[in-house]
Amino acid sequence: MPFLxxxxxxxxxxxxxVVSKLTGAIEAxxxxxxxxxxxxxxxxxxxxxxxxxxxxxxxxxxHEATKENAVALxxxxxxxxLLSLIVKNLDVMEFESRKDxxxxxxxxVRIKENDERGPGATYVLAHPEIPTLLFNGYNDPxxxxxxxxxxxxxxxxxxxxxxxxxxxxxxxxxxxxxxANFEIASDAFSTFKDLLTRHxxxxxxxxxxxxxxxxxxxxxxxxxxxxxxxxQSLKLLGELLLDRSNVKVMLKFVSDVQHLxxxxxxLKDQSRSxxxxxxxxxxxxxANPNKPQPIIDILANNREKLLKYLEDFHTEKEExxxxxxxxxxxxxxxxxxxxxxxxxxxAPAPAEGVPADSTA
Length: 360
Known about the structure:
Helix 8 packs antiparallel against helix 9 and helix 15 runs parallel beside helix 18. The N terminus and C terminus are likely disordered. The protein is mainly alpha-helical. It has 21 helices and no strands. It has three domains: 112 residues, Leucine-rich Repeat Variant (Alpha Horseshoe); 71 residues; 127 residues, Leucine-rich Repeat Variant (Alpha Horseshoe). Helices cover 68% and strands 0% of the residues.
């Protein structure tokens, strides 16, 4: 008899029964944290009931999953605090159970009813400590990647994303993407990027309301000593500025002299990949038809150096017609800039004994 058939005959099969048993198993595991024998028994029980939940949610080759069962499981999970229990006890679960629990959590949060917010997402929205706990999971290498995946599942909902953006956790992402552990830093950046690109209107409103603090922190990423952080941050910045939802933010960003100077430094970075990503942000400064005079002055003062540099800039990519055309436009625009206005030369002081000319 296949294992899952045996499991179904021996264990509860309705969504309500599965959630009840699963909740009990997690509570037992939590209570047995310091009791090795009790923890072993609780982990065995947990693995069985996680298997039941996975079968209801995903089915297998012989058992087809139904939306009705999935929705019922999500409803029961929301009524019994199962989602909170999973998050709070992820660290004491065994490796395979932890993977299964994260997968089940994600499915329960994603499930929708008639294209409306489902019970799982509604539960997380009413318990804002859940995204915070998942973010804090990045501090524990054992559960960091599980927590990252679960947090990204939560952020699929626009209202949860809005709460995270407006809450105390978001600005801490700027630290997490630079931690020493490469896997954790990369996962944190994936979550950071998801949060800034998935819900465009929500993000546009956030960037307008928190422009100063956001870009003050973001510029530090562009100056990071970590090559991967600089490259990923530059690429994401280009995506944000060129998104139509962020037009107001883009115009403000490219009117700032310090931002232009940062891009000009990155254009000459030792890494050709970073040079290339910097070009896609630099071109927005040049192409802006309403450049403030200080921006024009910097471009004009550096015109000859910029033209010489851009002439040989990534010539190996000129088979890319779009890049070739953009580069030609930028070169032409810079070449047509007039020299910056010079301050008037003060009139020489009159010689001793000679009265100044007072004629109009």
